[in-house]
Specification:
The complex is a heterodimer of chains A (243) and B (249). With 243 residues, chain A is mainly alpha-helical. Chain A is built from seven helices and no strands. Chain A is globular. Chain B is α/β, with parallel strands linked by helices. Chain B has a domain of 169 residues: 3-Layer(aba) Sandwich (Rossmann fold). In chain B, the strands form two sheets. Chain B has a six-stranded mixed sheet with strand order 6-7-8-3-9-10, sandwiched between helices. Chain B has a four-stranded antiparallel sheet with strand order 2-1-4-5. In chain B, helix 5 crosses helix 7 and helix 7 runs parallel beside helix 8. The two termini of chain B are 31 Å apart. Classes of the chains: A mainly alpha (243), B alpha/beta (249). The interface between A and B is small, with 11 and 12 residues.
Amino acid sequence: METHFDIQLGKLRTRLFKMCSLVDEQVQFALRAFEEEDVSLAEMVIERDKKVDKYDVKIEKICQKLFALNQPVAMDLRLIMSAMTINTNLERIGDIAVNIAEGFVRIKKKPAYLEKTKINEMAALVKEMLRNAIDSFIQNDPKLAEKVIRTDDELDAFNVENHKILIEIMKEDKDNIDSAIAFLVTSREMERIGDHATNIAEDVFFIVEAELIKHKYEKFLFTQAEEVEKEIDAEENENGGDD
Amino acid sequence: MDTKISVKNLDAFYGKNKVLKNISIDIPRNKVVAIIGPSGCGKSTFLRCLNRMHEVVGGTITGSILVDGEDLTKTDPVLIRKRLGMVFQKPNPFPTMSIFNNVAAGLRFNGVRNKKVLAPIVEKSLKQAALWDEVKDNLEDSGVNISGGQQQRLCIARTLAVDPEVILMDEPASALDPISTSKIEELIFELKKNYTIVIVTHNMQQAARVSDFTAFFYMGELIEYDKTTKIFTNPANKKTEEYVTGRFG
């Protein structure tokens, strides 16, 4: 029999899933706005942040109520605790999507030198990371969560590379400074999205495996990375690749 | 782990009906162990086996219960009950006795009659039970003329007066209001410095708050026994998880 508590938990899950897809869309749109030089799409992202904030407050209220009235334990406790931190991470990602959109609204056009940077590759990777983090939460999939955590170093490396390239571009031509600074910020913002996606993945691990890997995942990954890699590859092959 | 009570392969019966099945559990010294489980799971029977009260209600047991290595099944039950004191669900002070005499009852039963000897023990026991300040001026009043929460602490003082090693508590706060319950729980924290405590409770939050270890019983079997934090954050057994999260039982 489904109890009142189960119904409330279901409600929390549904709201959080909606928040997930909304924030995912915000990031997709913000990045597409500068990929396709679409200022109106960027403006829509800025406008829609209010909706993200509303979901944030709603989810926090549900969690507060569930804690106060039900004293959850075991799997319920882990889910509600994680729901609160996942919600906070999603709300921050939403804010970053707005920052990226605002950055593009200021410069309005993609400069030609952008091809020399890793901005596009980084955008593709960060979208994949966020999508995987969200999917790992929705599907309770710790293996996919691990994949997200492992990808974060790659994203950080792109950011470092962008930094170097954009500084060179600024040195070459002073007229590039304004736009290059905007892309430096965008690169840094994408790196932050990666950090928040990693936090979500760590929470998924906590929900499913009841293990807190926060701040110690490097150790965790170094000991298991190869084994996990093989397992994931084998599964992907079984499922017919990445499609 | 410094084990105070070691139970091995314990079966308990009422007639032919087996109510506890092959229970093996080590209870550590100066710790609080909570026994949880749905009604009829055998948790109170288990508690009664520990001080041989199970025999008093017509039951029998097989297996062994060692307290500091000594087999309880081969020891005089009266001596055992002195070493393993019990506090029951409903406060049960002796109605015809004063507060003082209630606390002194066990000692008197054991032959101590001199009031000069009894008085400091009564005072110490009432202080340990966090009741002294509330009753010190009315020690000659009847033991039933105080509140339910005070009566329960009086019963705890009565148990402590005979200087037991272990305190067995069978739902000690279930008949009390939240303030009295909180006093009993605080008392348990204090008492575990000197005593080993086994508490049966239906109140899961209470088990989580007061105990160091939790044992989950179901249909006469010990399903899971682990640190309380583990049981309430990440139990190993699915049944335990379902029970602590309120999904059955």
